[in-house]
Amino acid sequence: MARANIQRNMSLTIDGIGYAGVVNEVTPPVITRVMEETRGGGMDGVLKEDLGQEAMQITLTIHGTKHELLKHLFGPGLGASIVLRTSNKQQGKGGTQIIYKVTGSFSSYDLGTLSMGSKNSTTITGEVEHYEIIEDGKEALFIDIENCIFRVWGEDWKEDERNHIGL
Prior knowledge:
By secondary structure, the chain is mainly beta. Helix content is about 5%, strand content about 55%. The chain starts with 5 loop residues before the first strand and ends with a helix.
């Protein structure tokens, strides 16, 4: 019986600055396709058509406050490069490194509740332009919204589409 991979540890960098020991939680982007119902003549039911990628977000929760991250808020050209590295392991087996790479800009910076004698946390939400997952050195997923690139384990799902429109 196979056992689940358990995340043992993680580190976070934003624009090359390390936040290991400060990062508490990361919610990677959710990959959601826009689907629209279609039913044509002669069809016995409804099918859903894939119309492309929904907007993606990443959420970071860090201990305390890191106001230097405010420079990535609001506006074009103020984007951030976020890299999350995780170490995952099955009981009795070797480990797996998974790297999540995201570029985009932050849309919210939430300090939560600040109170005496308690550990506060800051929640940052980012709007994603590029998203990449690398597992043990192999590209599992690469999404570049602006350039119409969507690769899964090296298979380019949008290559024909880009060629058809001259990209």
